[in-house]
């Protein structure tokens, strides 16, 4: 089942150069290699996406988020930062 695709001059030249260099015997080999690389990349992407979805589901399944007063939380962060800065200035 032969197919015809327009890939543009840039890629046509790339394929010609790869074949002329001896790296590949035919343009078809170049195209198959390129498609294999795309397939591998898509499989990695799919695996990463599945892992991310699993982690999101773990978070959802863990129950509702603990309610936090953002004002108190930010004040606590600032206070700890000031303590670290003061300790650094004291040479601790």
From TrEMBL:
Name a biological process GO annotation: regulation of DNA-templated transcription
Q: Which domain of life is it from?
A: Bacteria
Keyword Ligase set for record:
no
Q: Spell out the InterPro entries in the cross-references.
A: ParD, ParD_sf, Ribbon_hlx_hlx
UniProt KW keywords: Toxin-antitoxin system
- Does the record carry rRNA-binding as a key word? no
State the similarity comment: Belongs to the ParD antitoxin family.
NCBIfam families reported in the protein's UniProt record = antidote_CC2985
Among PANTHER family, the record links this protein to: ANTITOXIN PARD
Tell me the protein's name: Type II toxin-antitoxin system ParD family antitoxin
**Which organism is the protein's source?**
Bradyrhizobium hipponense
Species lineage: Bacteria, Pseudomonadati, Pseudomonadota, Alphaproteobacteria, Hyphomicrobiales
């Amino acid at each position: 089942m032969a197919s015809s695709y327009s890939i543009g001059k840039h890629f046509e030249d790339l394929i010609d150069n790869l074949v002329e260099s001896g790296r590949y015997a035919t343009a078809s080999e170049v195209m198959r290699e390129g498609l294999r690389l795309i397939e591998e990349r898509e499989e990695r992407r799919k695996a990463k996406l599945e892992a991310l979805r699993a982690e999101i589901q773990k978070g959802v399944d863990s129950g509702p988020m603990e309610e936090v007063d953002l004002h108190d939380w930010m004040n606590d962060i600032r206070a700890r930062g000031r303590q670290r800065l003061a300790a650094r200035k004291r040479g601790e």
